[in-house]
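The data are quoted verbatim here:
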Amino acid sequence: MSERPWYQDFKVYREPRVWLIFAFGVMSGFPWVLIGSMLSAWLQEEGLSRTAIGLFGAVFVAYSVNFSWSPLVDRFRIPLLHRCLGQRRSWIALCLTGMLLATAALSRIDVTSQLTLVAVLALIIAVFSATQDIAIDAFRIECFGPHEARLQSAGAAMATAGWWTGYSGLGALPFFLVDGISWDWQDGYLLLTGVIALQLLLVVLAREPHRYAPELRTFHSVKDWLHNSVVEPVTEFFRRNGWQLAAGMLAFIFLFKIGEAFLGRMSIVFYKEVGFTNDDIAVYSKIITWWVTIVFAVLGSMVNLRLGIVKGLMIGGIAMASSNLMFAWIAGVGPDTDLLLAAVLIDGFTGAWSTVAFVAFISLLCNRAFTATQYALLASLGNLGRTLLSSYSGMVVDWLDGDWQLFFVLTALMVLPSLLILFLLRHQLLRLETSYHRSQL
């Protein structure tokens, strides 16, 4: 536990690099509005079933397999763009351009007659967004040196706060516009195209992290490139940690966020079915969740610094599972905004705490020689439950005959296997965390 006065932990937020990470976090969370909450609400209003809306989430599988092309983001120089923007920003700019074009196309579509095209465009946005995440995560880790543990933790907090600003803060706009001034969902997509354009401008104006980025090697053959960019990052991870510990950590990463993902995938459908309006969703699920998450992401990073990442994960996981039961309560009571307020406050607090600890934990495991590849591999494994498996959440609700209370109880129980793994590996992980911090002294 740190002996520093608690108020000194806030000094890290004076560092400009931390706020740049926040801005890039906004870019990372924003695409989930386009193909997540906003699209779910649009499809629900058009009369699609819970199962169909849930399966639409299969486009998020891109986030689960993006590790397979992460070596390209780590090593391949994009012609012209690399010369102007550098390795990380050139990839981010390319991805933003692709998402801008796909979002503009969504603003011109009739969802009832062109559902297949909607799915294709959603997949395009997901692929570009998943690729962008690889570059953004590498950018964040490379902004800080191995000796800057507090800045790394603050970076994880601001990445989380930025993600929720992009997803909840900016995500509230279309819900307000659809109910408030009777816009069509297509009009909302057109407005969000302009938001992407502003993000692209910010990437151009930002600075590339040169100080702590590894040198890009020149490879003499395809075989040499594959070995150093694909094989070596994976084998190095297992070699450094040992097969038993590495396998246990991968199992934990895979299972930790599944319950939260099942809840999140069906939350908009649940809100609308139980009787909340689009304005209610914008205010409570978006705006309030946004600020709660930002505040507790910052506080969570400081608490995790003092408790340690492993203890922070355990506490955050227990709280995350418990908060899911609040939604079961709403399912029994109905559209009570006071109860919804309590639920989003608790859920925002537990989600922020657990996410900051989770991001810091994955960042801790990465070797800087393979930053993008190893982080993408670990994050993709965590996203597998959040994306591919959670696409069946609508089927689960239908299988339960629309029993939302039982559904949310099940999402709470889904967290327990990961916490059992964390408990069994706690001594090895604590030694790993201690050796990491000693190496920075």
About this structure: The CA atoms of residues 312 and 332 lie 32 Å apart. The domain at 8-438 is CATH 1.20.1250.20 (Growth Hormone; Chain: A;).
